[in-house]
Each structure stands twice: as C-alpha cells, then as structure tokens.
Amino acid sequence: MTRIGVNRIGCVGHGLCAELLPERIELDEWGYPIVDREPITADLEGHARRAADACPTLALLLERD
Amino acid sequence: MATLATTVGLPRLLSALADGEMVDLGRHLDAHGAPPSERQLDAGSLVDLVERAGLRGRGGAAFPTATKMRAVRAARGAAIVVANGCESEPISAKDALLLRELPHLVLDGVELAARAVGAGDAVVAFEAPNTAARESLESALSERRAERCDATRITLFAAEERFLSGQETALVSQINGGPARPTFVPPRPTDRGVDRRPTLIQNVETLANLALIARYGADWFRELGTVGETGSRLVTLAGAVEEPGVYEIECGTPLGALFAAAGGLSSALAGVLVGGYFGSWLPAPGIGQLELSDEALARHGAALGCGAIVALPASCCAVAETVRVAIYLATETAGQCGPCVHGTSAIARTLHGVAEGKASPTAFADLERWAAELPGRGACHHPNGLAHFVSTALRTFGPQFSDHARRGPCAACADEPVLTFPQSIAPRT
Q1: CA of B2: how far to CAs of B14, B124, B189, B265, in Å?
Q2: Using an 8 Å Cβ cutoff, are B224 and B231 in contact?
Q3: Nearest C-alpha of chain B: how many angstroms from A28?
Q4: What are B111-144's pLDDT values in tens digits?
C-alpha cells in the first residue's frame, strides 16, 4: 500500500503537489500541503509519482507499508 | 514531595528520599542493595524482564521500553545510551527531583540500559540551568568511580533550556553539536543517533524504574498499576492544592486521591490540566473520580503524558492562562515546518485577540479549523500539542472565551499566572 507523506522540514510550500495530485493533496492558507492519507489507488499511481518527482525540495514522499 | 501513603507498595522510586538531600551511594545501597551483576542478569534476560514488566517510557510518549531496546540491539554499530532528563515541560519537576536527589537510581538504570543494548558509553542530559542536577550527578559519578561500580563511560550533557530540548531527535542533534531542533525521521535515533550510532534514549524516570525492575523482578513491578499500564508513576501536581509537588502514585489512581495526598484542594476549581502544556483541559465537575491511567483518560481525549497536572483555581482567568501558554508554545516552535510556524503563530495571535476583546467575527471558526488541520503536520508533535491544548481549552472554558471576545479582559486577567514558564523565555503579552 502506498500513501502520501511529507518531509515537513524539507517542504517550503511550493504547492506543485496540490496541482498534480488534487485527489489527495490540498493546500492550507499558507500554501502548505494537507494530505489525505488514503492509500494511492492504481489509477493515481502515475500522478502521485509525477507529483513526488516534481517537488523542488523532494519533500513529497511515497510511503509504502 | 510525598507519596500516597494509603497505597500499599508505595513509595517505590521515592522510597529512599532523604529530606531534600542527595541520596549518596551508601544510603542508596542500604535502601535497594546492589543491582544484579551481568552474570546474574545478562542482556537478553534483562530485555525479556523489561518486556514482562510491561515498562513504558515515562517521558510522555509511553513507548514500550523493551521494543526500543530490541530496535537498538538489532541496529548495526556500537550502541550508546542517552538518559533524557531535560524535562522541558515547565510544570513538570519529577525528572529534576530524580536527578537532584536520587542520581544513583538513575545511574543504575543507565548502567542496566547500557548492558541491555551492549553499549559502552552513555550520556546523561539535563537542561543547562539545572545546576543542582549537574552537582548531584558529578558527585554520584565520582562515588561510583571510587567504588568501581562504573562499567559504562558516562558523560554529562547540559542541553538548551527550550521547550523542544528534550524531544528525542532535538536532543540527539544537540549532543551532536547541532541546534535544539527536531530532525526528520527516518533515520530514527534507534538506528542512527548520537555520532550516527544506534542510540537508546530513555527518560530518567524510565531508567529509575529499570533499576528497580532488575532488582525486584517483573511480577513485583506489575503488582501496581493496571494491566496495560504497569508500575508507579511520578506526577507533578501544581495549582490549587495545599501541598504542590512531586507525588508517586499507582497508575489508575483517582485524581481525588492525589488531591487528598496533597492536603486537599485549597480552593474551588475552574478546571484541571492533565499532561502538561501538551495536555488536555478537563472541566472541574466530577474530576475527582478521574482515573490517572491512559486508558481511562483516553475516554476524555486526554493522556497522562509527562505526568504534570495543574488544578486551576476558580478565581483564575482560564482564558488568560491559556493564551499565555499558547503564545509561549508558539514562540517555542523550532521554526522548521511551515504548518507549525504559521499555524501556531496564527492560533496564538487569534487567541490573544479573543482575550483582548478584539477578535474577528471568524476567530472561533478559524481556531477550530487550525486546531483540526495542524496535528501530524510537523516533524515533531509540537503542532499537535498546541492544537490539542487550545481545542480542549475552548471546549472546557467556552463561555469564558465568548465573554472575553465580547467584553475584553476580565478583572482576573492581570493576576499572577498559575501556568508559568522559565523566566528567561517567558513571553510578554
């Protein structure tokens, strides 16, 4: 099972993740992600991977459990 | 300092206390005897014993000690032990008491923890202003060197006096020469901590319990407490009781019995804060029946945490008390995680506005939203703690907050605070 995680120290709120994966990520009023920890479904895997790769500080994590 | 004389089997940890003096090695051994040697109790047996005793961490997170020990044993590299006596929670005084008056009990625990994980080195950490801890530890260590009961190389470390100083990864960072700030996990300190070595970090009360479990056994330890929460607990009781201080109680003791042991309440109560500044405000009616176990407290959304309890007198302004602590906690953010930096500051600012009668019409809705959004969105639990403290305050003291929002400060707002902070970093409001 894969879930979205965030390295909160690394994240500086660029906000690209919320654009690339709105199904699981929204931004708070300061631009920092609020993450839905529901497992990533098969149809979202590609989007989740692209969102993680696009994060300028590599703070968006795909966590497997 | 006292214990519940009515509970059979107590005191345990505090049984050797000597009128405020440090208990020296002779007196310590008279009270407890020598800990079992390695031949009598080897590393594997010791970890099994700790597991059977059901010992959990006493620093606030209540993590099972044996699980942590096993993680360190399984990690690659030469292990090291850190005794955490930082106790940065301003209300709590139990760890300072242990370090100042019962250093040998803690140091026995350090030696045993080192044996359990095969460590040759250990660090005992306390907050820098706690000079009494340093003096007692230095004196105890020299006694142990003279008596050759010092198998482990133990060094002392004076940590910064900050709220997050005792947070595990922040403490490791400081010992490694870095700032008092949490780091991202993984790696966990059990895998890579001090000098990148597998590091067993245990609160000093946990280690003191380890010293007793090794001597008296798991069954003895479980004679007190509940099935899930074994043994005794040190709690710090502050506020409207006749004799505030550190008490040793059995897990599951009703709060009313603790109040009675402290000479009873000195006034009617506005509410009770359980678990320190990361804890929960609970309403006063019926509070005496509240059992001090995490299982019972969880039904009220609370936890015993570090064991700090404040009985807030009815004459106090709960709003002013809450706002001051919220501002203190907001200023104590490590400043690393965006949601914590912005969220804690927004909560503190908005609460201050409410207390001053200058709140925006959306203030309460904003506070509820931020308190719901913050938890889990930091590298450590700092945002969770502040969010919980504030949301339980709003729930417990709702009418008082509404009154302040409408009318501004009350007559009691300017009274001497009950919830205090270290003077050097006390926020001004």
Answers
A1: 8, 25, 35, 16
A2: yes
A3: 8
A4: 999 999 999 999 999 999 999 999 999 999 999 9
Tell me which residue in A8, A12, A29 faces B377 most closely, judged by beta carbons.
A8
User: Which domains does chain B show, CATH number per domain?
Assistant: 14-222 (3.40.50.11540), 236-313 (3.10.20.600), 318-425 (1.20.1440.230)
CB A37 within 8 A of CB A43: no
Give the residue numbers spanning the domain of A18.
2-64
**Residue A9 to residue B337, Cβ atoms within 8 A:** yes
- Report the pLDDT value the prediction gives residue B404, as an integer from 0 to 100: 98
Domain harbouring A17, CATH code: 3.30.70.20
pLDDT per position as a tens digit, B354-372:
999 999 999 999 999 999 9
A8/B336 CB distance under 8 A: yes
Q: Are B243 and B221 spatial neighbours (Cβ–Cβ below 8 Å)?
A: no
Q: Where are the beta strands (DSSP E) in B260-348?
A: 269-274, 280-283, 308-313
Which of B338, B340, B379 is closest, CB to CB, to A13? B338
